[in-house]
Specification:
By secondary structure, the chain is mainly α. The protein has helices spanning 2-33, 38-48, 51-63, 66-90, 94-97, 103-122, 128-149, 165-197, 201-212, 214-230, 237-267. It is built from eleven helices and no strands. Mean pLDDT is 85; it is low at 154-159.
Length: 268
């Protein structure tokens, strides 16, 4: 048991370091090179940091213990909100968060919590039609997000003078690969510990939910830290980036990863 705990600690630390020093740095380099908006940058981070949930849901579906994977999605989205709120409080961003321009993102983030939580409690419609419905919900989210923000999000011209774009791409790919590997083994060794202790599947989902939310936690704090270092904190761009990281991560869990798990559960 002590060995498993030690391995979990090493994997968690590796995940945090890879997100902070590799993944976020690579995404920042790429977004600076192509002058992408803070909103787009946050969404890229959100998609990338959802990789651990993907590995857990897919593996649980194939293993026939989908209850754990389902609760992993529900708990991850709730925990992401808690971690995001912690970063907001730590960097005194409460007033910025209440800006009217962020209402749409906040609503989406809550929807992405309520739906998987309801499915986890009721377990109604865990089948292929539900998977299709969730995929369509993700499409609706992207359409509405574009409609609501089409006038406020401006993509600037590419900054060809920015250097190290190749390094940025390499960091992005390397960071995602490290998260994939760590996510896989975090789930595996967590399951071993849980089996040794003896807890129900829903509890496994919650424990894995916390572990797979480590990349998001690191991202929220790192986004505000970088903006504070650059002197751009409290200018709404930092909140836009962090909020879109939260929404993109939670909606990817709900509208992409969960449907994939349901399809595997139904057909395989």
């Amino acid at each position: 048991m002590l060995i498993n705990f030690s391995i979990l600690a090493v994997l968690a630390i590796t995940t945090v370091l890879s997100v902070r020093f590799i993944l976020i740095t690579g995404i920042d380099t790429i977004c600076t090179r192509f002058k992408l908006s803070s909103k787009t940058k946050g969404q890229i981070i959100g998609y990338a940091t959802s990789v651990p949930e993907f590995t857990v849901v897919v593996s649980s579906a194939f293993a026939g213990v989908f209850t754990a994977g389902l609760w992993n999605i529900a708990s991850s989205n709730i925990i992401n909100w808690v971690l995001f709120s912690s970063a907001v409080l730590f960097y005194h961003q409460q007033k910025d968060m209440l800006h009217k321009k962020f209402i749409e993102e906040i609503i989406f983030a809550f929807v992405a919590v309520l739906i998987p939580l309801g499915l986890s409690i009721s377990r109604i419609g865990l089948n292929a039609p539900m998977a299709i419905g969730l995929l369509l919900l993700f499409v609706v989210y992207k359409i509405l997000d574009h409609v609501f923000n089409s006038k406020t999000v401006v993509t600037m011209k590419s900054d060809k003078s920015a250097s190290n774009i190749e390094i940025g791409i390499l960091q992005l790919i390397s960071g995602i690969l490290i998260i994939i590997v760590c996510g896989k083994y975090l789930g595996r060794y967590s399951e071993r510990l849980i089996m040794q202790i003896g807890v129900p599947a829903w509890a496994i989902g919650w424990i894995l939910g916390f572990i797979t939310s480590i990349p998001e936690m690191t991202s929220f704090f790192e986004i505000f830290r970088i903006h504070k270092k650059r002197g751009t904190i409290h200018l709404t761009d930092d909140m836009q980036e962090a909020l879109d990281t939260l929404v993109a991560s939670n909606f990817t869990n709900l509208g992409i990863i969960l449907p994939i798990g349901l399809i595997i559960l139904t057909f395989f």
